[in-house]
TrEMBL record:
<dbReference type="GO" id="GO:0016787">
    <property type="term" value="F:hydrolase activity"/>
</dbReference>
<dbReference type="Pfam" id="PF01663">
    <property type="entry name" value="Phosphodiest"/>
</dbReference>
<keyword id="KW-0472">Membrane</keyword>
<feature type="compositionally biased region" description="Basic and acidic residues">
    <location>
        <begin position="11"/>
        <end position="28"/>
    </location>
</feature>
<protein>
    <submittedName>
        <fullName>Ectonucleotide pyrophosphatase/phosphodiesterase family member 1</fullName>
    </submittedName>
</protein>
<dbReference type="GO" id="GO:0005773">
    <property type="term" value="C:vacuole"/>
</dbReference>
<dbReference type="InterPro" id="IPR002591">
    <property type="entry name" value="Phosphodiest/P_Trfase"/>
</dbReference>
<keyword id="KW-0812">Transmembrane</keyword>
<keyword id="KW-1133">Transmembrane helix</keyword>
<dbReference type="InterPro" id="IPR017850">
    <property type="entry name" value="Alkaline_phosphatase_core_sf"/>
</dbReference>
<feature type="transmembrane region" description="Helical">
    <location>
        <begin position="56"/>
        <end position="80"/>
    </location>
</feature>
<feature type="region of interest" description="Disordered">
    <location>
        <begin position="1"/>
        <end position="31"/>
    </location>
</feature>
Amino acid sequence: MRSGSVSILTPKEKNPMPISTKEEDERANSSSAALLSFNRDYSSSDSPPKSVTATVLFVSLVISTSVALCAAIVFGFLFFSASNSSASSVKLDSTVEASRRLAKLKSPVVLLISSDGFRFGYQFKIDTPNINRLIKNGTEAEVGLIPVFPTLTFPNHYSIVTGLYPAYHGIINNYFTDPESGDRFTMHSHEPKWWLGEPLWETVTNHGLKASTYFWPGSEVKKGSWDCPKDYCMFYNGSVPFEERVDTVLKYFDLPSDEIPSFMTLYFEDPDHQGHKVGPDDPQITEAVAGIDKMMGRLIRGLEERGVFEDVNIIMVGDHGMVGTCDKKLIFLDDLAKWIAIPKEWVQSYSPLLAIRPPPGYLSKDVVAKMNEGLKSGSVNNGEYLRVFLKEELPGRLHYSASDRIPPIIGLVDEGFTVEQKRSRRQECGGAHGYDNTFFSMRSIFIAHGPQFARGRKVPSFENVQIYNLVTTILNIQGAPNNGTTSFPQSILLPSR
């Protein structure tokens, strides 16, 4: 369009004026006189010379033809531009994708799948045709899903299903001690007192819908309207083969339509299991990723055989990433003895999240000041890779202070480093997570496929607390208050028809 505008609307470049000879000047003057004499009055007996008449007619024809041609070109240009603009508008309007109608299911279903420790980028380690199929025909967080801090399994899995940061849902670590009761939380603690907030399975049942959970932290807890119903709530057993887990979920789709759970979870321990042993770059990780892809293929085929693959909203996530650790990246608390002794009884967790609760009689701010003095002295091995904070002085983006369960002193360890109490002869390399969630190595995956998700779409990275509102929007139910944003689902989901 721009080149056309220039050729029509921009004056043509003037050619150089030739230097005329005397003979040419006389011809020109003669022609000018003839043209000027066209307006003379002639008597009835007189007639203009034939040469004059021919010249006048020829010039008039040239002028009128030129004017008509220019008008036609301009009109054609304007018409073409308007047509293109109109066609573009029609094309854009016609390509706005809306959510696809269900072919077999009567109502929306969300299947939430977790592959523990699936670091973003693992999908490129080996050909993953089934995961890639979901990506190609679905929506993916282009550079990964951002976990909450601390980037540990239980805090993140429960943030995904509640939309709350750990300080608000109560699971602030995989292991911790309640400062009031002195009770110890472990990954086998199923008492409702630990698990705050409202997880998705509870939200779903509150609305009279069915939910099922095949392993998910917190799903065994009987809380609110959720009583962990038999055949719909599996108690964790890591020895159950992955194939059996997939097949059990598939059997739900053999039920009558009104009995199919609207919300389901499915959990795999891999590749986190291997990552802790060998780190993120070992061939065992590649093998584990291939195994997860195989399970996704088994699931897809089963859904296709039942004619519901395109009806189910599959959301595949990980809870955190993984980074390599080794014996050369160690920090020992005993090395701080010159400045302050940190007994092991004060320490609730070492690494990657250092959490310290001093006993009465010690001011936390004094402990922090002395620890940081030692760490910055240059005399503590790798001391520069550990920063210690009062929890209320942690960066606000971590959202890790608004709970009494969080110890008053928190240490942030740099990527790949480990904190231990004292030196030992143990030397080993492996993998860890739990670090600051801004580290790219802690990112995981978000892959979504189904009638409510656009095909082949890439979206910016986001924190996993947004997933709760995403699921409730798909199911068209009202969720509980949470830390996600209410507008987020509109940025990910297709508009309804």
